[in-house]
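From the methods appendix. Each design record in this collection lists the tokenized structure first, followed by the designed amino acid sequence. Records were kept in a plain field format so they could be parsed without special tools. The example shown here is representative of the layout used throughout.

RECORD:
FOLD TOKENS (201 positions):
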């Protein structure tokens, strides 16, 4: 049996590890901090959400395995993780003009939805606190889920950035060629410009 904490680590670390390998080319040196920043934000999210969830379970007897307790606890965890993960990614993306900052929110929402879907589908093979290394089939499922999600979202952003680059090149090159042709065709007009006359003096 695999516990929820190990399943979370397997999913999220794989997801952002795959993303970093795809985004490092687009983000440049910023891509090297992607995995580190996300790992730190995941740890911070866990440290903030764990006390709240444990308090609700022990003091307020919220049942994490039945409705509506599971929905309440999942909502609290998702909100805390969502805010911190989005902020960490946004701080990196805002330093790059090529990447859309809204990707931080989209990436986080997709990751959370896929993770909860995997938890729901594998609820029977997960324990609240059990053997962290048992249930290798479940481990493979969460690793594969994280890898596929990371590859899909990372490649989507990579494809978007590539389209933006092509569009910018398509705008810049014709303007440069047009300017060169005008200089060749009418060199005397440009040489008679006041700017050139002032420089001669």
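DESIGN:
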């Amino acid at each position: 049996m695999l516990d929820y904490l190990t399943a979370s680590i397997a999913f999220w670390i794989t997801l952002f590890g795959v993303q970093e390998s795809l985004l490092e080319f687009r983000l440049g040196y910023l891509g090297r901090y992607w995995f580190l920043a996300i790992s730190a934000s995941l740890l911070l999210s866990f440290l903030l959400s764990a006390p709240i969830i444990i308090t609700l379970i022990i003091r307020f007897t919220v049942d994490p395995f039945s409705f509506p307790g599971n929905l309440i606890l999942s909502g609290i965890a998702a909100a805390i993780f969502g805010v911190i993960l989005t902020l960490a990614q946004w701080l990196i993306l805002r330093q790059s003009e090529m990447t859309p900052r809204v990707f931080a929110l989209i990436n986080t929402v997709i990751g959370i939805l896929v993770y909860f879907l995997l938890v729901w589908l594998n609820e029977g093979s997960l324990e609240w606190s059990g053997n962290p290394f048992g249930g290798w089939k479940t481990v493979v499922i969460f690793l594969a889920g994280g890898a596929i999600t990371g590859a899909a979202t990372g490649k989507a952003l990579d494809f978007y950035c590539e389209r933006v680059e092509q569009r910018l090149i398509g705008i810049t090159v014709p303007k440069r060629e047009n300017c060169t042709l005008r200089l060749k065709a009418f060199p005397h007009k440009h040489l008679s410009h006041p700017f050139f006359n002032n420089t001669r003096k």
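APPENDIX NOTE: The chain has a mean pLDDT of 78.
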